[in-house]
C-alpha cells in the first residue's frame, strides 16, 4: 500500500516536472517569436536632396528588402541635412542617441558626421569615394573599427576616354569642385594626374559653397575648352546653376553622375547610384544579422557605363560617333 502511494507521489512529481519543462520550452518559443516579430531599427542620414543621392536611398531600401528587411521588418529613421554641415552634426547625434541598431551615411560628410557621433554603433557608408582619405576606415579590406560600407570609385580613365571620343579638339579641361568635401579633393588629384598623362592641361577651380558657383563658372568657361565635375554633392545640388552660367560659353560639361548628364551635361561614365544603394542596404542587413564592420571589407564599385546627352550634343554641334552610341549604357534624347 505504501509502495503504491509512493509510486503515485513520484508520478505526480514527474508529471509536474515534465509540465514545467514543456511550459518553459513553449514560453521560450513564444519569446523568440516575439523577438523575431520586433522590427529592426536603422538610422539613415542623407547629406542633401539630389536625384543621385535619392537613388542611393531608394537602393538602400531595396537592398534591405532583398535581405529580408522590408517595411514590415525594419523601421528606418531617415534624416536629410539639406547640405547644412551644422545639421549634419546635430542629426548625427540624434540618430546615434536613439536605439538604432545600424547607422547609414549617404555621402562622405554624412558618414563623417556619424563617425564623430559614435564609436560604438555600427556605421555603413553609402557612396564614399575615398574612405581612407576621409579618415573613415584604416584599410579597405580590414576596416578595423565600427565603420564599413560601399565606395564609388570614379571611373576616371573611362571618363577621359569618352572626353577624347566626343571632343577630340579639347586641350584644356577646367575642373569644378567644392573645397568642403574631402571626397572631391582626392578625385581631382587622380583626374589631374591621369589627364595630364593623357596630354591635357588641367586647371582646377574650387568653390567653398554653392554661392560662388555661377561667378566661378563664368570665369572658367572663358579659359578652358571643357569642364569636368567629380562626384561632388555641393556641385550636384546646384548643377542647374553650372549649366546656366555656361549657357553663353557653351563649353561641353562632363559631370560624374547620370542626373547631372540629364540636367545639361554632355556625357559621362558613371557608376549606377541605385546599385550602390542596393549594395549599401545589403551590407547593413549583414550587420543587423551579426556581422562586424571591423571584419567586413569595403565594397568598391569602379566600373561604369557611359551616359550620353544627345540633345546637348546637338546644341553644341557635336556629332557623336556611332561606336560611342552603340556602346552607351544610356542615351538621353
TrEMBL record:
Pfam families: ABC_sub_bind
Alphabetical list of Gene3D superfamilies matching this protein: 3.40.50.2300
Leader peptide range in chain numbering: 1-27
Keywords from the UniProt entry: Signal
Record has Signal as a keyword: yes
Domain of life: Bacteria
Record keyword Signal present: yes
InterPro entries (UniProt xref): ABC_SBP_TrpX-like, ABC_transpt-TYRBP-like, Peripla_BP_I
SUPFAM superfamilies associated with the record: Periplasmic binding protein-like I
Name the record gives this protein: Tryptophan ABC transporter substrate-binding protein
Lineage summary: Bacteria, Bacillati, Bacillota, Bacilli, Lactobacillales
Gene: trpX
Amino acid at each position: 500500500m505504501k509502495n503504491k502511494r509512493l509510486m503515485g507521489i513520484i508520478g505526480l512529481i514527474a508529471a509536474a516536472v515534465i509540465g514545467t519543462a514543456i511550459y518553459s520550452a513553449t514560453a521560450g518559443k513564444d519569446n523568440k517569436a516575439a523577438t523575431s516579430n520586433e522590427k529592426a531599427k536603422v538610422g539613415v542620414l542623407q547629406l542633401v536632396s539630389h536625384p543621385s543621392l535619392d537613388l542611393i536611398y531608394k537602393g538602400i531600401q531595396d537592398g534591405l528588402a532583398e535581405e529580408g528587411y522590408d517595411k514590415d521588418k525594419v523601421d528606418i529613421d531617415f534624416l536629410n541635412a539639406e547640405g547644412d554641415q551644422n545639421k549634419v552634426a546635430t542629426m548625427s547625434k540624434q540618430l546615434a542617441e536613439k536605439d538604432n541598431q545600424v547607422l547609414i551615411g549617404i555621402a562622405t560628410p554624412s558618414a563623417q558626421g556619424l563617425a564623430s557621433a559614435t564609436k560604438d554603433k555600427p556605421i555603413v557608408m553609402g557612396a564614399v569615394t575615398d574612405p581612407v582619405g576621409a579618415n573613415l576606415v584604416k584599410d579597405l579590406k580590414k576596416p578595423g573599427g565600427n565603420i564599413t560600407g560601399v565606395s564609388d570609385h570614379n571611373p576616371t580613365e573611362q571618363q577621359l576616354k569618352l572626353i577624347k571620343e566626343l571632343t577630340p579638339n579639347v586641350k584644356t579641361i577646367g575642373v569644378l569642385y567644392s573645397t568642403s568635401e574631402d571626397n572631391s579633393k582626392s578625385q581631382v588629384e587622380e583626374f589631374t594626374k591621369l589627364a595630364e598623362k593623357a596630354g591635357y592641361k588641367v586647371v582646377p577651380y574650387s568653390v567653398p559653397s554653392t554661392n560662388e558657383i555661377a561667378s566661378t563658372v563664368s570665369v572658367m568657361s572663358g579659359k578652358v575648352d571643357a569642364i569636368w565635375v567629380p562626384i561632388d554633392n555641393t556641385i550636384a545640388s546646384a548643377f542647374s546653376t553650372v549649366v546656366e552660367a555656361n549657357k553663353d560659353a557653351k563649353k561641353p560639361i562632363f559631370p560624374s553622375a547620370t542626373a547631372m548628364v540629364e540636367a545639361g551635361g554632355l556625357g559621362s561614365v558613371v557608376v549606377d547610384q541605385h546599385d550602390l544603394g542596393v549594395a549599401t542596404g545589403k551590407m547593413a542587413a549583414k550587420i543587423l544579422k551579426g556581422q562586424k564592420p571591423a571584419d567586413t571589407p569595403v565594397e568598391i564599385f569602379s566600373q561604369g557605363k557611359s551616359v550620353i546627352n544627345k540633345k546637348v550634343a546637338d546644341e553644341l554641334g557635336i556629332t557623336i560617333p556611332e561606336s560611342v552610341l552603340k556602346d552607351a549604357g544610356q542615351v538621353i534624347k
